[in-house]
Design a protein that fits this description.
CATH class of the largest domain: Alpha Beta
Shape: globular
CATH superfamily of the largest domain: HUPs
Number of domains: 2
Structural class: alpha/beta
CATH architecture of the largest domain: 3-Layer(aba) Sandwich
Radius of gyration: 19 Å
Strand order of the largest sheet: 1-4-3-2-5-6
Bound molecules: pantoyl adenylate
Order of helices and strands: EHEHEHHEHHHEHEEHHHEEEEE
């Protein structure tokens, strides 16, 4: 059974009861408009914990563009149905007033890596992400929290915050789920016009196949992408592009980097880069 919580106090009471009973919890924070990528995090959490909590909250503070925030897909009924089918135990559905009693006067800042790549193009974005993730982690009181490698920089910053503040929750990375044509699953993909959707797989291909970041950017511009950046950092190639006003981000391991076994769920199903069948080293 999947139990929704709109009342934070009711959830905190529920979690206290679970803690007293010694039940472990895995937590998957999301902004909804769920797809197989999110569900792979739920699946991983279910395999490692007694219970799984998913939160759905479209966090206004992390959108630098008002239109992007307003256009962000909201489909809670569909999400609930998917979470029931995926076997999530609890769903936290906080309101903005619940999560921001301080009206965002209190924030977590990382002053170095958060200002590069995505952070350079979206000022304040990662402060807002870290702030809401800290709030959610405090409410969840989970043993483990699951974050996708799709948002590589976010994952690194969340791990850094957990270390810096001695948070008791282990941050677990989960590999990117892709369409069979290589496009990373994203809630924003639905906003791509048909012609742009047909072009979109070239993004992942260019990141994976070009010899250098410059070459990847050149190939992408030649195919009609607006390139925000392509950069190699610590054995990973990260990129952000825009196609018809829709912004896409992705990243791939560089040669020799950990790729993980591929998993195919069927002819039309998504492809997992690492897991759910892959080796799961919690500290990797
Ligand atoms: P959202 O974009 O909804 O993503 C929720 C989680 O799903 C993130 O950890 C993200 O990396 C993961 N995810 C998204 N697409 C994926 C894919 N194709 N394969 C694997 N994992 C994928 O990221 C956020 O929400 C927000 O910033 C949040 C952390 C919830 C804070 O507001």
């Amino acid at each position: 059974m999947t139990k929704p919580f709109t009342d934070l106090q009711a959830w905190r009471e529920e979690r206290r009861t679970q803690c007293r009973a010694g039940r472990s919890l895995g937590f998957v924070p999301t902004m909804g408009a769920l797809h197989e990528g999110h569900l792979s995090l739920v699946q991983r959490s279910r395999s490692e914990n007694d219970g799984t909590l998913v939160s759905i909250f479209v966090n206004p503070t992390q959108f630098d563009d008002r239109v992007d925030y307003e256009k962000y897909p909201r489909r809670v009924d569909d999400d609930m149905q998917m979470l029931r089918a995926a076997g999530a135990d609890y769903v936290l559905l906080p309101t903005q007033a619940d999560l921001y009693p301080d009206a965002f006067r209190y924030r977590v800042s990382e002053v170095d890596h958060s200002r590069t790549l995505e952070g350079a193009h979206r000022p304040g974005h990662f402060d807002a992400v870290l702030t809401v993730v800290l709030k959610l982690l405090q409410l969840a009181r989970a043993e483990r929290a699951y974050f996708g490698e799709k948002d590589w920089q976010q994952l690194q910053l969340v791990r850094g915050m957990a270390d810096a503040f001695f948070l008791p929750t282990l941050i677990v990375p989960v590999g990117t789920v892709r369409e069979l044509d290589g496009l990373a699953l994203s809630s924003r993909n639905r906003r791509l016009a048909a012609a742009d959707r047909a072009k979109a797989p070239a993004f992942h291909r260019a990141l994976a196949e070009a010899a250098t970041p410059d070459e990847a950017a050149h190939v992408l511009r030649g195919s009609g992408f607006v390139v925000d950046y392509v950069q190699d950092v610590d054995g990973r190639r990260l990129g952000a592009v825009r196609l018809g006003g829709v912004r896409l981000i992705d990243n791939v391991p560089l040669n020799g980097g950990p790729k993980g076994p591929h998993y195919e769920s069927g002819p039309k199903g998504p492809r997992y880069e690492s897991g759910p069948e892959g080796p799961h080293d919690e500290d990797s």
